[in-house]
């Protein structure tokens, strides 16, 4: 599309947007009496207006039924988690028996590594991206230490080339091939939290499998953002949070994908809990764990219903909007933001912003990361003062993520005008 840096063009795109009405389903923060331009869906998604009703329904049922709410609530609590696979399978790109909602992201990552990181004296290495999100780094470090290995030996980080910001796909594949039969696990973020780079998960998985390793992904910045086909890509496992693009509230319940060839194998090692026990005999309370032969078999405890109610409110909106339409709009929003920033740069006497997120539409999601070459923190603080909620990452990056459910093209145009005035 031939973009234009004009208000009229932005409004024209909004008028043509078949998802424009969904913006009205969310609460926007107010600063100095004005609705903000909210560009941090990559950190915490906005609250759907229906969330209160969904949570209050469960509070009312708790008040009305007490413990009997497990069976008689409007959405009975005992099988509450079973309402999610149909909706999430569309977002994650998997079968319904391969997905379960449970716990939080890093808890799930550790639980999955119990199953999929089984190092031996000769096959023990983990290959990951450099500058992965800190929780992933700490999880990997602690796992390899637990098994008696040194992180500096066991963890191989693939870095961008000299003077580059994105990691080349060929470098990832080369690192996997070079480590070869020493590789136990390849674990990447689906989208890098810092640069916004979307990795080629299909090719990474194929490379991991070619050397006999498992392939897993942290989809915290990918779920609800980019197109995913976990099952068709033959990915072994993945986990994610729900509070970013999935708009399910701070610290919201996480999710897990496990390919059905693994999920159906009840003999796989895992840390077990009673909610992963086969449903037919769970309440006999017998010794000896018998796993459910689906992703549910990795559950530990019963459903955190209040958090799951907020999750359901958001997923119902995703269902109504349609994931394919959201992906189409996301590409346009991100492309327009790239265009606006490049146009802004071209008008400056000196370059003040370097976009470190790939320009290739197939290598990015919603997020665009701006490397500030001068006075970055001052510019970020002024953006906040003028009603733009973005995200600052040390030492000098502003992350901006317009999302298709509630951001508009006019938001992007206005952002460009504001940052242009600050730079002047």
3D architecture notes:
The chain has helices at 7-16, 51-65, 69-72, 85-92, 105-116, 134-146, 151-154, 169-179, 201-210, 260-263, 305-321, 323-346, 376-385, 409-423; strands at residues 30-31, 34-35, 37-38, 99-101, 125-129, 155-158, 183-189, 214-218, 237-240, 255-258, 353-355, 368-372, 388-389, 391-393, 397-400. It contains 14 helices and 15 strands. A hairpin with a 2-residue loop joins strand 1 and strand 2. A seven-stranded mixed beta sheet has the order 4-10-9-8-7-5-6, with helices on both faces. The chain is α/β, with parallel strands linked by helices and 424 residues long. It has two domains: 7-47 and 323-423, Aspartate Aminotransferase, domain 1 (Alpha-Beta Complex), CATH 3.90.1150; 55-319, 3-Layer(aba) Sandwich (Aspartate Aminotransferase, domain 2). The radius of gyration is 22 Å and the shape is globular.
Secondary-structure blueprint:
Blueprint: H1 7-16, E1 30-31, E2 34-35, E3 37-38, H2 51-65, H3 69-72, H4 85-92, E4 99-101, H5 105-116, E5 125-129, H6 134-146, H7 151-154, E6 155-158, H8 169-179, E7 183-189, H9 201-210, E8 214-218, E9 237-240, E10 255-258, H10 260-263, H11 305-321, H12 323-346, E11 353-355, E12 368-372, H13 376-385, E13 388-389, E14 391-393, E15 397-400, H14 409-423
Parallel strand pairs: 3-13, 5-6, 5-7, 7-8, 8-9
Antiparallel strand pairs: 1-2, 4-10, 9-10, 11-12, 12-15, 14-15
């Amino acid at each position: 599309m031939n973009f234009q840096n004009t208000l009229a063009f932005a409004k024209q795109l909004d008028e043509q947007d078949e998802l424009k009405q969904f913006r009205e389903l969310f609460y926007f923060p107010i600063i100095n009496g004005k609705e903000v331009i909210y560009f941090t869906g990559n950190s915490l998604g906005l609250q759907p207006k229906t969330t209160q009703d969904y949570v209050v329904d469960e509070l009312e049922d708790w008040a009305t039924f007490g413990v009997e709410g497990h069976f008689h609530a409007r959405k009975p609590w005992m099988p509450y988690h079973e309402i999610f696979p149909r909706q999430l399978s569309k977002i994650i790109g998997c079968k319904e028996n391969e997905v379960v909602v449970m716990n939080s992201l890093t808890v799930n990552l550790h639980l999955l590594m119990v199953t999929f990181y089984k190092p031996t004296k000769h096959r023990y290495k983990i290959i990951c991206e450099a500058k992965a999100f800190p929780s992933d780094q700490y999880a990997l470090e602690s796992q390899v230490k637990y098994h008696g290995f040194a992180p500096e030996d066991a963890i191989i980080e693939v870095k961008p080339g000299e003077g580059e910001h994105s990691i080349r796909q060929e470098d990832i594949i080369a690192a996997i091939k070079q480590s070869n039969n020493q590789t136990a696990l390849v674990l990447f973020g689906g989208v890098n939290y810092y640069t916004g780079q979307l990795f080629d998960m299909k090719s990474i998985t194929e490379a991991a499998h070619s050397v006999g390793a498992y392939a897993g992904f942290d989809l915290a910045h990918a779920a609800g953002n980019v197109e995913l086909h976990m099952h068709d890509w033959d990915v072994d496992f993945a986990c994610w949070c729900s509070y970013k693009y999935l708009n399910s509230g701070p610290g919201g319940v996480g999710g897990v994908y496990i390919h059905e060839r693994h999920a159906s194998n009840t003999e796989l090692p895992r840390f077990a809990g009673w909610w992963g026990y086969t449903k037919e005999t769970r309440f006999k309370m017998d010794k000896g764990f018998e796993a459910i032969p689906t992703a549910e078999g990795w559950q530990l405890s019963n459903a955190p219903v209040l958090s799951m109610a907020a999750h359901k409110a958001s997923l119902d909106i995703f269902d109504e909007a349609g994931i394919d339409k959201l992906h189409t709009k996301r590409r346009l929003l991100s492309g327009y933001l790239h265009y606006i920033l490049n146009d802004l740069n071209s008008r400056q006497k000196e370059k003040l912003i370097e976009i470190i997120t790939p320009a290739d539409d197939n290598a990015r999601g919603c997020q665009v990361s701006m490397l500030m070459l001068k006075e970055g923190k001052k510019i970020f603080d002024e953006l906040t003062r003028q009603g733009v909620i973005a995200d600052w990452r040390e030492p000098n990056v502003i992350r901006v993520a317009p999302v298709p459910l509630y951001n508009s093209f006019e938001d992007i145009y206005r952002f460009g005008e504001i940052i242009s005035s600050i730079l002047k």
